[in-house]
Amino acid sequence: MSVAEAPAARAVVRGSSSGARLREILFPAALLLCIGFAMLTLVVLLVDVAVDGIPVLSGEFITGFPSQIFPERSGIQSALVGTLLLMAVCAVFIVPVGTATAIYLEEYADNNRWWNRLIEVNIQNLAAVPSIVYGILGLAFLVRGPLELGRVVLAGALTLGLLVLPVVIIVGREAIRAVPSSIREGSMALGATQWQTIWKQVLPGALPGIATGVILALSRAIGETAPLIVVGAASFARFNPNDLTSDPFSALPIQILAWVQDPQDEFRALAAGAILVLLFLLLLMNAGAIYLRNRFEQKW
């Protein structure tokens, strides 16, 4: 480079450096702006729901049954009980199935086998399938099809279980994979079998991650509406389901949807109150997930 070209080169370098510094400033600023807008929108929605919903919260609202005529006597008991039953049956389904599948794929499956690769690809794809598709699947195979369970709690819970099962499997695999291989090698070097190693060493180490994944999956399932609409959950159930295999059921998302669609402002206020109850359940479940993760997490 000649002496005459040196000043021009320095000017180009200074220009590119100033442009890079400008981008470094603008990009974080844009991220903070987006985060601020999202938080502001969330706060506005929560305040709007709280203003309408807090006045209707009472013991009678929790223990009463819904009414299509008298909003002052309407409650969420049947929807709340139905939601709790759905989550309980869903957990009983997804915990053993999801954990067993995660163990198989991480500890036993041979990735060179085409069927194992096919299972992995399908699990990853199923995690992105819209919930309404699972509702149609539940209607075709659980409510009407080969099983013919009918519009009962068991059918709704299994449908929600199929919806969140891929999430449990993926999170469970990550938790099992996080256990150091040296733990397995040391256990088997002392004479333990592969299953004894998994049961006594790998699963206890992966338990916090698996439990967190299950609770977060249930947190997604508790707010799903579309699958329950398709499988036939009742909008105004004035009774609690006493049998998982024969009684109709309702759920909080279904009850909220029915009240929101009502033209009377009183019923919309009831929907806001039910939303607050559902948010409380979600916060409780997420707090449980945080507690389990912090309580049983192991440092490797």
Sum this structure up briefly.
With 300 residues, this protein is mainly alpha-helical.
| CA radius of gyration | 26 Å
CATH class of the largest domain: Mainly Alpha
What is the CATH topology descriptor of the largest domain?
MetI-like fold
- How would you classify the helix and strand content by structural class? mainly alpha
Helices, by number, come to 11
* pLDDT < 50 runs, ≥5 residues: none
Classified in CATH, the superfamily of the largest domain is: MetI-like
Q: Percent of residues in helical segments?
A: over 70%
**Tally of extended strands?**
0
How does this structure look, described?
With 300 residues, this protein is mainly alpha-helical. It folds into two domains: 5-55; 61-296, MetI-like fold. It has eleven helices and no strands. It is globular, with a radius of gyration of 26 Å.
